[in-house]
Specification:
Keywords: Flavoprotein, FMN. By secondary structure, the protein is of the alpha/beta class. The protein has a single domain, classed as Flavodoxin domain (Rossmann fold, 3-Layer(aba) Sandwich), CATH 3.40.50.360. The chain has eight helices and five strands. Strands 2-1-3-4-5 form a five-stranded parallel β-sheet, sandwiched between helices. Helix 7 links the parallel strand 4 and strand 5. The longest helix has 15 residues. It is globular. It binds flavin mononucleotide.
């Protein structure tokens, strides 16, 4: 698989970058090609404007920065995408929110390649990597719910979340829950992770992970 990681912190070599790198390393260890992109570098042209007056006569976004190339040349071609962001005010960092806001221009019917963009975004496996100062589980819930809805809207299987706690640069490495290991594992398992929630009709063998008596093969068809 081709894996793209969008790193959203304005702080270079920070905690979310460490999670992004660990995730990409994990993906590479499983034989995937993985690349981390710095959203603050690539999309420095500003926030979404009023598309109706801002888009060019050809329907293209007129904000002159690396968004177009990142979207069309890298993200659309990838099979999976991970978002690495610090928790800012209980939500995602502005560059990542802006990534989604500006996507509106590319998926709207006025964009010359909207059908290709919608089709290309659909089906990609998505993962979320969060660094935060607080470890209180409620702190990240709003952002996780938002990403869940975004991925649902884009028809992307949302396969996992890793949270690392730290404040100083690189401090997530000292988080006793080992988020760098978890991010690496998530990257490595990205392709095969089972993501579908149970539904009422889901066959349920007694053992979740399988044992000599459990018909574990049932899961493969879900
Ligand atoms: C503007 C700003 C807002 C923040 N808001 C929160 C917050 O709401 N909750 C939290 O736990 N940490 C918050 N933090 C702390 C960062 O999430 C934390 O330091 C994180 O590890 C930084 O990641 P980075 O090194 O990738 O930039 C905030 C930091 C900044 C600069």
């Amino acid at each position: 698989m081709d894996v793209v990681v969008l790193a959203a912190s304005p702080r270079p070599d920070g905690n979310s970058q460490a999670l992004a790198d660990a995730f990409a390393d994990g993906a590479r260890s499983a034989g995937h090609a993985a690349r981390v992109f710095d959203l603050n570098e690539r999309t420095s042209g500003g926030f979404l404007r009023d598309c109706r007056s801002c888009r060019g006569p050809d329907g293209e976004c007129s904000i002159a920065d690396g968004y177009r190339e990142l979207m069309l040349e890298h993200v659309l071609r990838a099979d999976a995408i991970a978002y690495a962001t610090p928790l800012y005010w209980y939500g995602m960092a502005a560059s990542l929110k802006n990534w989604f806001d500006r996507m509106t221009c590319y998926i709207s019917a006025s964009h010359p390649r909207s059908a290709e963009v919608i089709e290309g975004l659909s089906g990609k496996r998505a993962a979320l990597l969060i660094s935060s100062e607080e470890r209180y589980p409620g702190a990240t819930l709003g952002m996780i719910a938002q990403v869940q809805e975004m991925t649902r809207y884009l028809r992307q299987p949302f396969v996992g979340v890793v949270q690392g706690v730290g404040n100083r640069r690189g401090e997530v490495a000292h988080d006793p829950t080992d988020p760098l290991v978890a991010a690496r594992r998530l990257g490595a398992d990205l392709e095969t992770l089972h993501f579908t929630d149970y539904r009422v009709e889901t066959p349920r063998p007694g053992a979740v992970w399988g044992d000599a008596d459990a018909p574990i093969g049932q899961y493969r068809d879900l």
